[in-house]
C-alpha cells in the first residue's frame, strides 16, 4: 500500500512540474493569441498589452512584434509600427507574416514620400508573395508618382529652355515677363476666339485678370476673361501706340496697342506675345516681342 502511494505521489509531482515549466514559446503564444483576439475587436491598446507580455516572455518572437506593429499602425503610431515591423524581420526575415510586414513598411514609407525605400520593401514583399495586393498597389502608385515627377521635370526643363530662348531673342518685354504663361495660336484663330470672350465690367477688371492669370500660371479659370496668346507674325506698321501685324499663314492682319516704340522694320518677322480681353470692347495689347 505504501508503495502505491509513493508512485501516485511521484506522478502528481511530475504533472505539477510540467505545468509549471511550459516552454517559453508556448506561454508567449498564449498571450499573442489573446492579443490577436483584441486586435480583431479593434481593441488596440489591450492588444498591445498582451503582445508586450508575449515579447517579454520570448524576446525573439517575430510574430508578436508584427502583431504589435499592426496595433500601433491602427493607432497611427507609425514610428512604433515601423520599429516593430523591422524588428520582426530582423529576427526572422522569413517568418509566416514576413510578406505582410514588408508590405506594411512599404505603405508607411510611401505615405511619407520615401518612395525609394518604399519600393525596396514592396519588392521584398512581392518576392515572398507576388500577389500581395498592398505591395502591388504601392508599386503602382510609385510608378504613377515617378511618371508624374518625370513629366513635371520635363515641363520644367522645357519652360526653362523657353525662357532662355526668349531672353536671347527679346526685342520688347517687361522685366518680369513670363513667356510660359502664353499659348501658341494662329492669328486667324485668335481673332475668332476673341469674339467668345466673356464680358468684363471695365478695363481695370480685365487688366487685373492678366495679373490673376500670371498668379495662376495661365489656368483656364483665369483665361475666361483674358486670353494670353503668342503668334508668329510679320510687322506691318506702327502709328503711335497702335501696331499692326499680319499673319504668315492667312490673309489677315490685326492692330494691337503697345506702350512704346518697337523699332521694327516693315516686313520683319517676329513672335508677338499679346493679351486679348473685353473691357467692354475687345482690346488687343502687346506684352512682348521677340525675333524669330
Q: What attributes does this structure have?
A:
alpha+beta; single chain; disordered N terminus; about 290 residues; about 15% strand; OB fold (Dihydrolipoamide Acetyltransferase, E2P); seven-stranded mixed beta sheet; Serine Threonine Protein Phosphatase 5, Tetratricopeptide repeat
Question: Could you please describe the fold and organization of this structure?
Answer:
This protein folds into two domains: 125 residues, Serine Threonine Protein Phosphatase 5, Tetratricopeptide repeat (Alpha Horseshoe); 113 residues, NigD-like N-terminal OB domain (OB fold (Dihydrolipoamide Acetyltransferase, E2P)), CATH 2.40.50.500. The protein is an alpha+beta fold. It has eleven helices and seven strands. A hairpin with a 2-residue loop joins strand 3 and strand 4.
